[in-house]
Write a structure and sequence with these properties.
Blueprint (H helix, E strand, L loop, with lengths): L1 H23 L11 E4 L4 E4 L7 E5 L4 E5 L5 E6 L5 H12 L24 H23 L8 E3 L4 E9 L2 E8 L9 E7 L15 E3 L5 E5 L4 H14 L1 H5 L5
């Protein structure tokens, strides 16, 4: 499938952006120094900013690495089409003048990088739209829920998500995945923590279905409108409210 191949190529290219954060930004206990943010102005996933506002980023539609300065101005760029993953890391190493580390064993992706990048243009356009929609929907969801984290993309799984803290270690995560080992095509998810003791016996949500292993939650598969995606997130979060509202032992 060309979409899966393009998704994996984009996932790999994004590791160079994440590598800048992993290597050059102050280390955070939750690994948030490596996470990415959708910048609608640039239609790109960008790492956290340095003190002067500089960010590493990747623009989806033309598969181009960027160095973005304050106010969204582009200082340097490199199209990765026809190049390699080493070229991607090398671009940022040359710009910042410091080594940018590759993913370690714990961060390794499920498939190796391509020998050279050659993503499908139509699939890149689709992924551009999907991430833009996801950022919009998740920020709308976050605005309605207290204690929800900022919307961020986590480079290992490539999901874009927010996490609502419900106290005493309880939480509800809501996010979007462009596809993975569980489902090749894009899907939305809501996952409560702690998981119910009887995962298989837990009733299915009104929209979507339950995913049981290795994680538990509600899943809504396929390309859907922003309105349908937000309805799923709200409905699934309400469906799992009894789990996170139950006081944990001790």
């Amino acid at each position: 499938m060309s979409f899966v191949d393009t998704r994996m190529q984009l996932h790999w290219a994004a590791q160079a952006v994440a590598g800048v954060g992993r290597s050059l930004l102050p280390q955070q206990p939750d690994d948030s120094h490596s996470n990415l943010q959708w910048l609608r102005m640039n239609r790109a996933l960008a790492g956290s900013a340095f003190d002067d506002g500089t960010r590493a980023a990747i623009r989806f539609r033309d598969f181009t690495l960027l160095v973005i300065k304050d106010r969204g101005l582009i200082d340097e760029e490199l199209s990765l089409r026809g190049l390699t993953i080493d070229d991607a890391f090398g671009f940022f190493e040359k710009y910042f003048g410091k080594p940018v580390r590759r993913p370690n064993e714990a961060e390794a992706l499920p498939a190796p990088p391509p020998s050279t990048f050659d993503p499908n243009a139509a699939d890149l356009a689709r992924l551009d739209r999907l991430y833009d929609d996801a950022d919009f929907v998740l920020n709308a969801y976050r605005a309605k829920h207290a204690n929800a984290s900022e919307v961020r993309c986590w480079p290992h799984h490539f999901d874009i998500a927010t996490l609502q803290s419900c106290g005493e270690g309880r939480s509800i995560g809501a996010g979007f995945v462009p596809g993975d080992d569980h489902y090749a095509e894009p899907y939305w998810y809501v996952t409560p923590y702690p998981y119910p003791e009887d995962r298989a016996g837990y009733p299915s949500p009104p929209i979507g279905m339950c995913h049981l292993e290795p994680w538990f939650g509600a899943v809504h598969r396929g390309d859907v409108s922003r309105e349908e995606a937000l309805e799923f997130l709200e409905t699934a979060a309400a469906h799992f409210a009894p789990i996170v509202s139950t006081r944990l032992p001790g």
